Amino acid sequence: MKKTDVINLIQISDCHLGSKKAYVSNGVNTYDSFKKVLCEIKKKFGSSLIIVSGDISASGAKTSYQLFSDTMDKEGIPYRWLPGNHDDLHLMSNIISQQFIRVEKHDNWVIISLISCDSKNVEGFLAKNEIEELEFLLKKYKDRYILLFVHHPPASINSEWLDKHRITNSGKLKTILSGHLNVKGIFTGHVHQERATDWGNLIVYSTPSTCYQFVKDIDYFEISSDGPSYRWIDLKSNGVIVTGVNYLKS
Fold first, then answer.
1. What is the rounded distance in angstroms from the CA atom of residue 193 to the CA atom of residue 209?
2. Quick check: 150 and 199 in contact, CB under 8 A?
3. Cα 238 versus chain centre, distance
4. Residue 246, Cβ density class (10 Å: 0-12 exposed, 13-18 middle, ≥19 buried)
5. What angle separates helix 170-177 from helix 128-140, to the nearest 10 degrees?
6. What predicted TM-score, i.e. pTM, was given to this entire model?
7. Which among 69, 28, 40, 39 is positioned nearest to 52, based on CA atoms?
8. What are phi and psi of 133, to 5 degrees?
């Protein structure tokens, strides 16, 4: 890839696609909202790489992954994905045309995707092999700036019901990352809201869903009036991150 001063990425999350295009969740046709988000991204950002940070499917249905894969292929937008707690990693790996990619290298930046979920639990957890892989990669790329993408947030977002879902062994993650100041940020999904949370020497960025959002700073489930959304991320050659969230206009 040609070296540039700024690398642009897009993050989308929590598409919650059903087995058919007509699927509706919490009053939102999730496929229609997903398509509208993609349309705006293409219009504003062209062929920037999209990172899809989990919960592509609402229930892990085989046909939902086929629907996602076919749509992304048709749109022709480069993308990477990682699983969420609603997803089935085995099905994703076998159906989605783009395979799971652990490491993405762009100039002096490295993007690392972590898997924080399994099909049996809603809350996040980094398995032993994930921790070991992360430690290996942090050493391997100690001379580059690093971004981490993971479905579940490791930090509290001031919401009792959602904080129960955060990465349960986040203390281990925090300890590991404290020795690697070249890690510049963690980008997550799952919580269906925009957050930027100070966590040790890092900021944890939570990205809203492509469908519906949750009300912030309350201890119970409630859908907010915020519409479908996505995050843009600019990576500068000096290690600085500039990022923001765009909501679709109704």
1. 7
2. no
3. 24
4. middle
5. 10
6. 0.95
7. 69
8. -65, -40
